[in-house]
Amino acid sequence: QVQLVESGGKLVQAGGSLRLSCAASGRTDSVYRTGWFRQAPGKEREFVAAVNWRSSFLFYAYADSVKGRFTISKDNSKDSIYLQMNFLKPEDTAIYYCATASRFSNNQADYDYWGQGTQVTVSS
User: pLDDT digit string (tens) for 39-78?
Assistant: First the structure.
């Protein structure tokens, strides 16, 4: 119903910047909120950032670990969402996923569609 494809993940030096992109297709009219999640090796997947998709009420949310460093944005005309990551740390190393939800939520259980993920590796 909704297909998501992430891109932009790569190896980057600590302190550097990277921008991830997620292209959405299919029934994007059913999307209410979009988010980024990440999963590091041996750890559970965690919330990173989220923003409303098309609602006039734009509400941004960030995990404490990335607040002030990461910025989520979207371009509805291109059905795309982005994650600008600055001042990257080795702890940011993970597979990053974009996802969509049909309700207002930061809970990954409420996200219905997921991309395949893109690997971000931050070296020391």
Answer: 999 999 999 999 998 777 789 999 999 999 999 999 989 9
Tokens standing for 49? 């950032």
- Give the residue among 21, 12, 35 at the shortest CA–CA distance from 86: 12
Stated as kind and residue range, the H or E segment containing 49 is strand 46-52
Q: How far is Cα 9 from Cα 26, in angstroms, rounded to an integer?
A: 23
Secondary structure (3-state) at 29: helix
Query: From CA 95, how far away is CA 55, in angstroms rounded?
Result: 28
N residues, the chain? 124
* 74-94 residue pLDDT tens: 998 999 999 999 999 999 999
SS3 at position 108? helix
Confidence of residue 30 (pLDDT cuts 50, 70, 90): confident
Tell me whether strands 118-123 and 11-13 are parallel, antiparallel or unpaired.
Answer: parallel
